[in-house]
């Protein structure tokens, strides 16, 4: 496929061309972007997928794989497909990975683009159910080399996958409708309001541990829609996601940021257990990007200013 790698920032400024192009394989029916519609095929797209589709059409491949043979990079890193670093993710999860104007962009995407560049290959993205990341199913079946999905490192998940060094310190946040007056979980409980969370996430687990029975939504977009349509009065989700939502003036008017919930979470990229070579390559990029300022640049571009306490080395 052609290399088309020009994007735009959240402010609309033109971004520098990214090195190798990123293809996207979407788990779902051909006409749809999200895997939420089900289906049995993958839809490959370049980073500028809308343009590529207009020029070349859409190729459908089967769910059993891409048909490429595995390979090893010059650095000895095994890959499931020659010339590609295949990434499992779950769209959308802004600001970490989401589709904008036919491109899959975001903080995670940009970091893994740098890993791919270091390995001399291009990144390919496969949109899959979030549940697969916890079990490592798509890694074990040889569909993907790694998972990048704003995923919290937990001891339970470590039983199934190996994690990179942490690349992001996360916290949870409460978001409520503007007119609700809700600013804390205590108020949700006292007023017997409906609480929502994304299914399978640490945010959902945290509020369940606090005694809540949250309405579970399949994706971050569904969480926001549930709040917007009155299915719930408040939601708990990762704070960077809330930051992204509130950049939209309509959302800023409709919702109010409440309690910050410190959970000590850190995100990591995951690889198949025992894939030490790829894990080391990812760790190298995380550490080097922090040292050379690229991490801070990407953080400011996709998330916002990097807190000073987080500008040092990887924890």
From TrEMBL:
Pfam families xrefs: SBP_bac_3
Domain of life, source organism: Bacteria
Record's keyword terms, sorted: Signal
Annotated CDD domains: PBP2_peptides_like
Record domain Solute-binding protein family 3/N-terminal: where: 84-306
Protein name: Glutamine-binding protein
Entries under InterPro entries matching the protein: Solute-binding_3/MltF_N (IPR001638)
Organism: Streptomyces clavuligerus
Source taxonomy: Bacteria, Bacillati, Actinomycetota, Actinomycetes, Kitasatosporales
């Amino acid at each position: 496929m052609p290399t088309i790698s020009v994007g735009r920032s959240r402010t609309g400024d033109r971004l520098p061309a990214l090195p190798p192009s990123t293809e996207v394989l979407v788990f779902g029916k051909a006409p749809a972007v999200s895997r939420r519609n089900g289906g049995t095929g993958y839809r490959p797209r370049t980073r500028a997928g809308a343009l590529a589709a207009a020029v070349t059409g859409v190729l459908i491949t089967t769910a059993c794989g891409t048909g490429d043979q595995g390979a090893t990079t010059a650095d000895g890193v095994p890959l499931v497909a020659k010339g590609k670093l295949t990434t499992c993710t779950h769209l959308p999860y802004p600001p970490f990975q989401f589709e904008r104007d036919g491109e899959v962009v975001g903080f995670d995407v940009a970091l893994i683009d740098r890993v791919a560049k270091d390995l001399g290959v291009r990144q390919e993205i496969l949109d899959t159910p979030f549940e697969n990341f916890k079990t490592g199913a798509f890694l074990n079946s040889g569909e993907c080399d790694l998972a990048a999905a704003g995923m919290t490192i937990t001891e339970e998940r470590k039983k199934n996958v190996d994690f990179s060094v942490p690349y992001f310190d996360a916290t949870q946040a409460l978001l409520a409708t503007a007119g609700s007056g809700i600013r804390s979980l205590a108020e949700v409980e006292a007023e017997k309001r409906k609480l929502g969370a994304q299914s399978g996430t640490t945010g959902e687990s945290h509020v369940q541990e606090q005694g809540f029975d949250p309405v579970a939504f399949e994706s971050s977009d569904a969480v926001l829609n549930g709040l917007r349509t009155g299915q719930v009065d408040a939601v708990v989700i990762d704070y960077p996601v809330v930051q992204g939502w509130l950049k939209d003036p309509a959302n800023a008017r409709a919702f109010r940021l409440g309690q910050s919930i410190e959970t000590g979470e850190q995100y990591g990229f995951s690889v198949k257990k025992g894939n030490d070579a790829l894990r080391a390559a990812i760790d190298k990029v995380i550490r080097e990007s922090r040292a050379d300022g690229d991490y801070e640049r990407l953080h400011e571009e996709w998330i916002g200013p990097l807190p000073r306490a987080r500008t040092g080395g990887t924890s």
